[in-house]
Amino acid sequence: MRKWEDPSRHQKLIAGAALNTPLYKEVKRLLTETISGGEWKPGSAIPAEWKLAERFDVAVGTVRKAVDELVGENILIRQQGRGTFVAAHNRARLMFHFFHIVRNDGSKLTPEVVMLSFGNGVADAEEAAHLGIKAGAKVFHIRNVLRLADEPIIFDTIVIPQALFPKLTASKVVNRPNTIYHLYQTAFGITVVRSAERLRARLADAESADILGIKVKSPLLEIRRVALTFNDAPVEFRRSLINTEHYEYFSDLAKTGGG
Amino acid sequence: MRKWEDPSRHQKLIAGAALNTPLYKEVKRLLTETISGGEWKPGSAIPAEWKLAERFDVAVGTVRKAVDELVGENILIRQQGRGTFVAAHNRARLMFHFFHIVRNDGSKLTPEVVMLSFGNGVADAEEAAHLGIKAGAKVFHIRNVLRLADEPIIFDTIVIPQALFPKLTASKVVNRPNTIYHLYQTAFGITVVRSAERLRARLADAESADILGIKVKSPLLEIRRVALTFNDAPVEFRRSLINTEHYEYFSDLAKTGGG
DNA sequence: AAGTGGTCTAGACCACCAT
DNA sequence: TGGTGGTCTAGACCACTTA
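The joint structure predicted for all components is written out below.
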């Protein structure tokens, strides 16, 4: 009997998943687990598709469909002729997927990050809700100012649970050789895969006006971002205040799906 | 000779397309042309996949890959057991893909649209640039206030080229039975398929403060949206001013690709 | 030349919908 | 019961990278 003639192997592979789960969804889940479990490191290649097909005892086409979705979610990266790689955080990736500020003329600049403070603290109600932890749980608060073209444009407050980032110190943050998401990934094994953002307009208070070098009551764009890892588990809550006099936030939706 | 043994038929189908264009991209282009050309109307089913495969002389899998991308771009809608349909504009579609305002608690309300004015005019430099027309070209200006929970929250100014919407009148806009994008689609054959948005914070001037029932110099979120049809051709430029005291703009990126 | 992903084909069977 | 999309398989060949 050839394998596609055996109706039970599908259920065997699934082993506890919901009934009627497509095989490729199950393969996708196994791939995701293998990545988040650390068997394949960020930046390295995963096995060739035919090897994965053999390992999971499915057809190559089924593996391809699973990989297709993970590529669409920016978790894997395909390179024709080279292989398929686990996405690693670097400046280019951060700028492309997580930095949505452009100058009025549409050009995109890389910000210079200056840390203002690093502190131990506890989560307030809002922070706790966004991070899926209890109010009062220990967190780190990191405040940065982001400079574009030598002007302070963005005032960031980052909140992360101490439980996820044990023994993080200010010096580790300041002396990181790469982006902070790269630090999360390499030092704590936490990969940020997507984010959800909420935006509103507000007036600058005394502190943010001082930091951004503008007048009190100037208009500011406020972004609240929750950064998520696999299975939509929250990792970081970030509040950004942006002086949009010469910069804008852009949201190009769709365009993800096709070519 | 079986058809997959004939290496020339691929180039035959492409007929002038760039070299090495994948077949499914060509099929996608033909599907898009057939839709925008009006052979298949919004809301109606397109032929079954095996019929399309026969019509284009390709395998069903190739048709599926082309349709996959158009589904990802919200141009086609698949319904298992029923068929594949050309996406039609309606309230649900508008709310899901083009209305990104939620209440602070995350709930989404349907706005009540009240038209303030409808006028002939000419495009200024900014409007012309966004619409891909010449400054001074004739446009319609439509101003609306959008009410949520009986409060005026959004002040919209819509700019559309008269060349694309000949003989549009205020009464057609006011008496439309459905959304304005549905009107574009049914009365002018123009289907909005996606949009690109830029956001910033600004202070309310006298007019917007009056319309939104807030104080002058209150903070407002400004959205500039360009709505696009097939091949990214611009259709509408819209400037929205939003009172974000109790409402927010949300941007959930990714999540498009996978499930 | 060897290895990888990208495309294309062909056909089986399943799940769902309308009738 | 017939028709549709959804899944899965199997295998061919192409395009690209690396050595």
